[in-house]
Amino acid sequence: PRACGCADSVESVVREGVPEELAADIWRIAVAVGADGPEPLCDPLTLLRFYRVCRMNVQDTIDKYRKTLEWRASYSVRAFMELHGSPGEFNEDGSRRTDVTAWAWRRRTGGTPLATFAQQYGFFGRLRNPAPADGAPVLVWRVGAADYGGYERENLIEPIITAFAAHFEDALQAARAESLRRRTMVQARLVIDADRVTLGVLRSMTFFKEVVDVIGSHYPEMLASITVVRSPTFVERTWPVFRKVVPPKSRDKVAFFGLDYGAALSAHAGIERAMLPKFMGGDAPDEDVGEVRAVPPGLERP
Question: Could you tell me which of 254, 279, 250 has the C-alpha nearest to residue 264?
Fold first, then answer.
């Protein structure tokens, strides 16, 4: 028998979890890219992610898939994942070396200078416990606490974006493994903590645009929901400005809630407040997200 995630025929694509009405196109894409097993990123459900973000255009999907493989090799997924976490998961071209239906990688806090930097000054992370309904990874970003000015002042944009790349890859592989086990597409839940956000964050638009342009375009259909909580009223009013840097397929997934967000979080994202880190009133350890320290003048680049 073939390994999980293989596309031998239209029928096998359906068995892997692709909706029947889309299976013929996914099969055509798999043949065009030479899929022979689940790697590189060519299991039917991962190809479905590319297909959906390309508005179900077969040729656009093939082109985007190939560009992503080029990026994964040139940007060196293997290198940045090993700098930030446990080694041995990836080949040189960015394909998985280990079982694609399992994902045990975790960010090593203190393992390397880059990992230490990400833990101390980063503002994002994946919680250790997934969403209970479908096993989806849960991501938390502390956008109001991050020192964007410090990143720019100390020329740290590149290492923080590399840390973001490891974060995105971690989320993709966690969602992908769960998708393959369940034979249905599983997408991450993103919870954005807007506590302490000020209008000054608007000056960081360039940073977020670079994150989306450099990284986000290579991780299609990764998010099921984007839930902004502890949000000051002006944040929702400035959403039209930030909306421009959010990929079009993700814009309708965004919802804003204030301090009393427990019931809304459950309804919008399918997760309970208790799952969140302690700094948000939950039970998860704060270290899952990072320390979000202010960047001191003269900080040595990792």
Answer: 254
Whether cis (ω within 30° of 0) applies to the bond prior to 297 is no
Give me 180's structure tokens: 């393959």
The DSSP secondary structure of 244-258, one letter per residue, reads GGS-HHHHTTEEE--
Residue positions counted in the chain: 302
What is d(CA 95, CA 165) in angstroms, rounded to the nearest whole number? 15
Model-wide pTM > 0.85: yes
φ, ψ of residue 47 to 5 degrees: the values are -60, -35
Tens-digit pLDDT profile for residues 95-149: 999 999 999 998 887 779 999 999 999 999 999 999 999 999 999 999 999 999 9
Burial of 150 (0-12, 13-18, 19+ CB in 10 A): middle
b vs e for 32-51, b when ≥16 Cβ sit within 10 Å of the residue's Cβ?
ebebeebbbbbbbbbbbbbb
Phi, psi at residue 260, to the nearest 5°? -95, 75
